[in-house]
Design goal:
CATH superfamily of the largest domain: Glutaredoxin
Distance between the termini: 44 Å
Number of domains: 2
Radius of gyration: 27 Å
Number of helices: 11
Strand content: 5-15%
CATH topology of the largest domain: Glutaredoxin
CATH class of the largest domain: Alpha Beta
Shape: elongated
Helix content: 55-70%
CATH architecture of the largest domain: 3-Layer(aba) Sandwich
Length: 255
Protein backbone atom coordinates (compact mmCIF):
# COMPACT_ATOMS: atom_id res chain seq x y z
CA UNK A 1 0.00 0.00 0.00
CA UNK A 2 1.50 3.37 -1.02
CA UNK A 3 1.62 6.26 1.43
CA UNK A 4 -0.92 8.34 -0.52
CA UNK A 5 -3.26 5.37 -0.66
CA UNK A 6 -2.92 4.95 3.10
CA UNK A 7 -3.76 8.63 3.68
CA UNK A 8 -6.73 8.52 1.35
CA UNK A 9 -7.99 5.39 3.07
CA UNK A 10 -7.71 7.10 6.45
CA UNK A 11 -9.61 10.14 5.21
CA UNK A 12 -12.21 7.87 3.67
CA UNK A 13 -12.62 6.14 7.03
CA UNK A 14 -13.09 9.48 8.73
CA UNK A 15 -15.68 10.45 6.15
CA UNK A 16 -17.46 7.15 6.65
CA UNK A 17 -17.54 7.63 10.41
CA UNK A 18 -18.86 11.14 9.88
CA UNK A 19 -21.60 9.85 7.66
CA UNK A 20 -22.52 7.21 10.21
CA UNK A 21 -22.85 9.87 12.87
CA UNK A 22 -24.88 12.23 10.68
CA UNK A 23 -28.71 12.35 10.87
CA UNK A 24 -30.26 9.59 8.78
CA UNK A 25 -33.27 11.46 7.41
CA UNK A 26 -35.53 14.43 7.74
CA UNK A 27 -33.23 17.42 7.26
CA UNK A 28 -31.28 19.21 4.57
CA UNK A 29 -28.12 18.22 6.41
CA UNK A 30 -28.51 14.66 5.02
CA UNK A 31 -27.44 15.87 1.59
CA UNK A 32 -24.29 17.61 2.88
CA UNK A 33 -20.91 15.83 3.16
CA UNK A 34 -19.69 15.49 6.77
CA UNK A 35 -16.49 17.41 5.99
CA UNK A 36 -15.80 20.17 3.48
CA UNK A 37 -12.63 20.31 1.38
CA UNK A 38 -10.76 22.38 3.95
CA UNK A 39 -11.61 19.97 6.75
CA UNK A 40 -10.61 16.96 4.63
CA UNK A 41 -7.27 18.58 3.84
CA UNK A 42 -6.73 19.27 7.53
CA UNK A 43 -7.44 15.64 8.41
CA UNK A 44 -5.02 14.47 5.72
CA UNK A 45 -2.35 16.82 7.02
CA UNK A 46 -2.82 15.53 10.57
CA UNK A 47 -2.60 11.92 9.44
CA UNK A 48 0.49 12.68 7.36
CA UNK A 49 2.19 14.39 10.26
CA UNK A 50 1.40 11.50 12.58
CA UNK A 51 2.80 8.97 10.13
CA UNK A 52 5.96 11.04 9.66
CA UNK A 53 6.44 11.04 13.41
CA UNK A 54 5.50 7.34 13.76
CA UNK A 55 6.59 5.56 10.55
CA UNK A 56 6.46 2.23 12.35
CA UNK A 57 2.67 2.45 12.08
CA UNK A 58 2.92 2.22 8.30
CA UNK A 59 5.23 -0.79 8.55
CA UNK A 60 2.88 -2.47 11.00
CA UNK A 61 -0.11 -1.75 8.78
CA UNK A 62 1.64 -3.13 5.71
CA UNK A 63 2.72 -6.27 7.58
CA UNK A 64 -0.80 -6.86 8.81
CA UNK A 65 -2.17 -6.27 5.32
CA UNK A 66 0.28 -8.80 3.86
CA UNK A 67 -0.63 -11.32 6.56
CA UNK A 68 -4.30 -10.88 5.79
CA UNK A 69 -3.64 -11.30 2.07
CA UNK A 70 -1.62 -14.48 2.66
CA UNK A 71 -4.32 -15.88 4.93
CA UNK A 72 -7.03 -15.06 2.40
CA UNK A 73 -5.04 -16.69 -0.41
CA UNK A 74 -4.38 -19.81 1.69
CA UNK A 75 -8.11 -20.04 2.42
CA UNK A 76 -8.94 -19.63 -1.27
CA UNK A 77 -6.39 -22.28 -2.22
CA UNK A 78 -7.76 -24.73 0.34
CA UNK A 79 -11.28 -24.23 -1.01
CA UNK A 80 -10.04 -24.73 -4.57
CA UNK A 81 -8.21 -27.92 -3.59
CA UNK A 82 -11.40 -29.33 -2.07
CA UNK A 83 -13.45 -28.37 -5.13
CA UNK A 84 -10.88 -29.85 -7.51
CA UNK A 85 -10.08 -32.96 -5.47
CA UNK A 86 -11.03 -35.44 -8.19
CA UNK A 87 -8.90 -33.71 -10.80
CA UNK A 88 -5.98 -33.57 -8.39
CA UNK A 89 -5.94 -37.11 -7.09
CA UNK A 90 -8.26 -39.25 -9.21
CA UNK A 91 -7.43 -38.37 -12.83
CA UNK A 92 -6.72 -41.75 -14.48
CA UNK A 93 -4.25 -40.08 -16.86
CA UNK A 94 -1.86 -39.25 -14.02
CA UNK A 95 0.96 -41.63 -13.09
CA UNK A 96 0.94 -42.90 -9.51
CA UNK A 97 3.94 -44.15 -7.56
CA UNK A 98 4.05 -45.66 -4.12
CA UNK A 99 0.97 -47.54 -2.93
CA UNK A 100 -1.90 -46.98 -5.41
CA UNK A 101 -4.31 -47.84 -2.59
CA UNK A 102 -2.57 -45.75 0.06
CA UNK A 103 -4.54 -43.98 2.76
CA UNK A 104 -2.86 -40.60 2.13
CA UNK A 105 -2.27 -38.99 -1.26
CA UNK A 106 0.57 -36.63 -1.97
CA UNK A 107 0.31 -34.72 -5.25
CA UNK A 108 3.42 -33.22 -6.85
CA UNK A 109 3.51 -30.65 -9.65
CA UNK A 110 6.99 -30.69 -11.18
CA UNK A 111 9.15 -29.85 -14.18
CA UNK A 112 12.05 -32.03 -15.37
CA UNK A 113 14.24 -28.96 -15.93
CA UNK A 114 13.62 -27.61 -12.43
CA UNK A 115 16.68 -27.82 -10.20
CA UNK A 116 14.58 -27.72 -7.04
CA UNK A 117 12.46 -30.59 -8.35
CA UNK A 118 15.63 -32.59 -8.93
CA UNK A 119 16.68 -31.88 -5.34
CA UNK A 120 13.33 -33.18 -4.08
CA UNK A 121 13.65 -36.48 -5.98
CA UNK A 122 15.58 -38.12 -3.13
CA UNK A 123 13.06 -36.83 -0.60
CA UNK A 124 10.19 -38.27 -2.61
CA UNK A 125 11.94 -41.62 -2.96
CA UNK A 126 12.62 -41.77 0.77
CA UNK A 127 9.02 -40.93 1.64
CA UNK A 128 7.73 -43.71 -0.61
CA UNK A 129 10.26 -46.20 0.75
CA UNK A 130 9.52 -45.48 4.40
CA UNK A 131 5.74 -45.11 4.16
CA UNK A 132 4.02 -48.16 2.64
CA UNK A 133 0.64 -46.41 2.77
CA UNK A 134 1.64 -43.32 0.83
CA UNK A 135 0.15 -42.75 -2.61
CA UNK A 136 1.92 -40.17 -4.81
CA UNK A 137 0.21 -38.61 -7.84
CA UNK A 138 2.66 -37.19 -10.37
CA UNK A 139 1.40 -34.05 -12.10
CA UNK A 140 3.52 -33.33 -15.15
CA UNK A 141 3.78 -29.52 -15.14
CA UNK A 142 6.23 -28.38 -17.85
CA UNK A 143 6.55 -24.61 -17.50
CA UNK A 144 10.26 -23.85 -17.93
CA UNK A 145 11.17 -24.68 -21.51
CA UNK A 146 10.41 -26.62 -24.67
CA UNK A 147 12.62 -29.40 -23.33
CA UNK A 148 10.42 -29.54 -20.23
CA UNK A 149 7.41 -30.15 -22.45
CA UNK A 150 9.15 -32.83 -24.49
CA UNK A 151 10.30 -34.66 -21.37
CA UNK A 152 6.78 -34.52 -19.91
CA UNK A 153 5.28 -35.86 -23.15
CA UNK A 154 7.85 -38.65 -23.18
CA UNK A 155 7.17 -39.53 -19.54
CA UNK A 156 3.43 -39.84 -20.13
CA UNK A 157 4.11 -41.86 -23.27
CA UNK A 158 6.37 -44.12 -21.21
CA UNK A 159 3.48 -44.73 -18.82
CA UNK A 160 1.77 -46.62 -21.63
CA UNK A 161 4.65 -49.09 -21.68
CA UNK A 162 4.46 -49.58 -17.92
CA UNK A 163 7.83 -47.99 -17.17
CA UNK A 164 6.89 -44.55 -15.92
CA UNK A 165 8.57 -44.67 -12.52
CA UNK A 166 11.98 -45.77 -13.77
CA UNK A 167 11.80 -43.30 -16.67
CA UNK A 168 10.72 -40.45 -14.39
CA UNK A 169 13.64 -40.80 -12.00
CA UNK A 170 16.08 -41.26 -14.89
CA UNK A 171 14.80 -38.06 -16.52
CA UNK A 172 15.23 -36.23 -13.23
CA UNK A 173 18.91 -37.15 -13.37
CA UNK A 174 19.22 -35.88 -16.93
CA UNK A 175 20.88 -32.69 -18.10
CA UNK A 176 19.69 -30.46 -20.93
CA UNK A 177 17.10 -33.06 -21.97
CA UNK A 178 17.46 -32.58 -25.68
CA UNK A 179 15.35 -34.83 -27.87
CA UNK A 180 18.28 -37.18 -28.35
CA UNK A 181 19.02 -37.32 -24.62
CA UNK A 182 15.38 -38.07 -23.79
CA UNK A 183 15.38 -40.99 -26.21
CA UNK A 184 18.70 -42.26 -24.89
CA UNK A 185 17.34 -42.19 -21.34
CA UNK A 186 14.20 -43.97 -22.53
CA UNK A 187 16.26 -46.73 -24.12
CA UNK A 188 18.38 -47.06 -20.97
CA UNK A 189 15.30 -48.01 -18.91
CA UNK A 190 14.04 -50.48 -21.49
CA UNK A 191 11.47 -48.41 -23.39
CA UNK A 192 10.72 -48.98 -27.07
CA UNK A 193 11.77 -45.59 -28.44
CA UNK A 194 9.86 -45.92 -31.73
CA UNK A 195 6.66 -46.66 -29.85
CA UNK A 196 7.48 -43.85 -27.44
CA UNK A 197 7.89 -41.26 -30.19
CA UNK A 198 4.60 -42.27 -31.76
CA UNK A 199 2.79 -42.00 -28.43
CA UNK A 200 4.31 -38.59 -27.74
CA UNK A 201 2.36 -37.20 -30.71
CA UNK A 202 -0.98 -38.39 -29.33
CA UNK A 203 -3.26 -35.36 -28.82
CA UNK A 204 -4.49 -36.96 -25.60
CA UNK A 205 -1.08 -36.43 -24.00
CA UNK A 206 -1.08 -32.77 -25.02
CA UNK A 207 -4.58 -32.42 -23.58
CA UNK A 208 -3.48 -33.95 -20.27
CA UNK A 209 -0.61 -31.48 -19.98
CA UNK A 210 -2.87 -28.53 -20.79
CA UNK A 211 -5.34 -29.70 -18.18
CA UNK A 212 -2.54 -29.83 -15.58
CA UNK A 213 -1.56 -26.26 -16.44
CA UNK A 214 -5.16 -25.08 -16.11
CA UNK A 215 -5.58 -26.96 -12.83
CA UNK A 216 -2.47 -25.37 -11.38
CA UNK A 217 -3.71 -21.92 -12.38
CA UNK A 218 -7.04 -22.47 -10.62
CA UNK A 219 -5.26 -23.41 -7.41
CA UNK A 220 -2.63 -20.70 -7.65
CA UNK A 221 0.45 -22.80 -8.34
CA UNK A 222 3.00 -20.68 -10.17
CA UNK A 223 6.26 -22.57 -9.69
CA UNK A 224 7.80 -25.97 -9.14
CA UNK A 225 7.91 -28.10 -7.20
CA UNK A 226 4.53 -27.76 -5.53
CA UNK A 227 3.01 -30.40 -3.28
CA UNK A 228 -0.55 -30.90 -2.11
CA UNK A 229 -1.32 -33.00 0.96
CA UNK A 230 -4.90 -33.09 2.14
CA UNK A 231 -6.23 -29.56 1.61
CA UNK A 232 -2.84 -27.91 1.97
CA UNK A 233 -0.57 -26.52 -0.74
CA UNK A 234 3.12 -26.80 0.11
CA UNK A 235 5.13 -24.77 -2.43
CA UNK A 236 8.82 -25.10 -3.13
CA UNK A 237 11.60 -27.43 -2.10
CA UNK A 238 10.81 -28.20 1.53
CA UNK A 239 12.35 -30.51 4.06
CA UNK A 240 11.37 -34.13 4.39
CA UNK A 241 10.34 -33.35 7.98
CA UNK A 242 7.78 -30.83 6.78
CA UNK A 243 6.28 -33.25 4.29
CA UNK A 244 6.22 -36.01 6.90
CA UNK A 245 4.33 -33.68 9.23
CA UNK A 246 1.79 -32.78 6.53
CA UNK A 247 1.29 -36.46 5.65
CA UNK A 248 0.84 -37.38 9.32
CA UNK A 249 -1.69 -34.57 9.79
CA UNK A 250 -3.66 -35.65 6.73
CA UNK A 251 -3.62 -39.25 7.92
CA UNK A 252 -4.83 -38.26 11.39
CA UNK A 253 -7.60 -36.15 9.93
CA UNK A 254 -8.82 -38.89 7.58
CA UNK A 255 -8.63 -41.52 10.33
Amino acid sequence: MKKNDFLRATVALALTLGLAAAPQAGSAQDAQPPFDATQSEAIEALVRQYLLEHPEVVVEALQRYEQQQRAAEAERQAAAIVALADQLSADPRDPVIGNPDGDVTLVEFFDYRCGFCKRMTGVLTQLVDEDPNLRVVMKEFPILSRESGQAARAALAGLRQGKYEAFHFALMEGGALTDDEILAIAASVGLDTDELQDAMQDPAIGAALRDNLALAEKIGITGTPAFIVGNTLVPGAVSIEELRAKIAAARAKSG
